[in-house]
């Protein structure tokens, strides 16, 4: 149970720390991962909200937390990277569907960023498959419920 909670916290850190760092640094270090490039359909590859600053902060937070709880820094770095790759995959798909950056796409916004690192955790750690799936689903549902609250508090720019 403690392991599942630690993994849940790591998902929150990977996906929440870029928001916090963006609020603290404003436009500093705000370089888009896609470099402003467009895909062959004419739309952005990921969009302006996917930045190197966010990628680095998400990985760093997971790395530090994972080392602190005894899972190891390498596991944490890889977990954070996979969570953010899942987020990039979501953004890529949303851009192909013609959705603007930060547009809402239920489940697509939450599951890839939770499932990719949880699959790795399931393969790496003494974690049952149902526990990995449960953590990913709880993260997705929690994200859907908490994001509007964070928006009302002025932490998020979008309510989703």
UniProtKB/TrEMBL annotation:
Keyword annotations from UniProtKB, A to Z = Membrane, Transmembrane, Transmembrane helix
Q: Where are the transmembrane segments?
A: 55-85, 106-124, 130-151
Keyword DNA damage belongs to the record: no
UniProt cross-references to InterPro entries, sorted A to Z: CarS (IPR032690)
What domain of life?
Bacteria
Q: Which N-terminal stretch is annotated as signal sequence?
A: none
- The name of this protein is CDP-archaeol synthase
Q: Which organism is it from?
A: Marinobacter halophilus
